[in-house]
Amino acid sequence: MGTLAGITRIAAGILGAIARLASTADDTRAGWDAPAGWDAPTGWDAPADEDDLRRLGLSRGEYLRAAAEGAPSRAAGEPPVFEGRLLELIDGNVPAFSPEELALPPGSERYAELDALGRCGPAIALVGRETMPAPGTARGDLGAVRPSGWDDARYGFVEGGRLFQRCHLIGHRLTAEDANPRNLFTGTGYLNHAMRVFEGLAADHCEAAPGNRVLYRATPVFQADELVARAVRLEALSAGDGGAGVRFSVLLHNVQPGVRIDYATGASREDAAVQDATMRRCVANEASRVFHRASCPAAARIAKGARRRYEGPRQALESEGYEPCKRCRP
Ligand SMILES: [Zn+2]
Question: Which intervals hold domain Type VII secretion system protein EssD-like (predicted)?
Fold first, then answer.
């Protein structure tokens, strides 16, 4: 039985590999020339949204490097099962825009109609300065929108106290969209911070020079009739440069460490077993039981015998009795 299961698994793996090769060969990415070394992430060394990343416990560079090195890659059609990592690559980090989508004119924004269950669908836009909010524009109030599965719950250990946020599929920063129900889904604040990191890559590219644009798509991934998305897929490709400026295809899971979510309804309960193993890198002081970002001056002063390099989920370190440094806020 075990052998049979093993053979089945190997066969499935081979079939998956063949399917991935076949999908690489097809024509869906016509219209842009893959740069040399196209499977290496690009645009990932841009300046930082440090506040969002600090909440994730990482610098932007660390986060994206960890993502590039540590994130598994799965095929686009695979069910979005959370296997302990917030972030995964899809199709080897290559977006799957059709030739028609690659030809969208500047200013294009499309939001899918809500389905019979009131769930949003893919949102795609060619973002650029013409779609972005004017400097100083305040964001509107989203409170009137109730995305599918909106079952707001409070947890003392979650930043801001609330589990869910009304998450933009395509961020306000890119399209100036406010309370558009077709652009909002029920997502954790934890996911929202990670989404902003990727929005930031697109926004930075657009802000870098007039005429810079990024084709950007966010697809909420619902399973069966569930009301809360399991994950969101983000794809981006900078226009006119073959993706040299920005290119990614990632899946971000709609999770919150410490909380188990019933995706069918949006109900939730505390569960310490739910953790994010997306890599974090820090330096712990075994004498003071404080941990730091590697760049913290205090980290450099830790005595050799007490210095511990750590890579893994932050909460595992906290559960060992370590506390984050108040200065570098790892
Ligand atoms: Zn520190």
Answer: 110-236
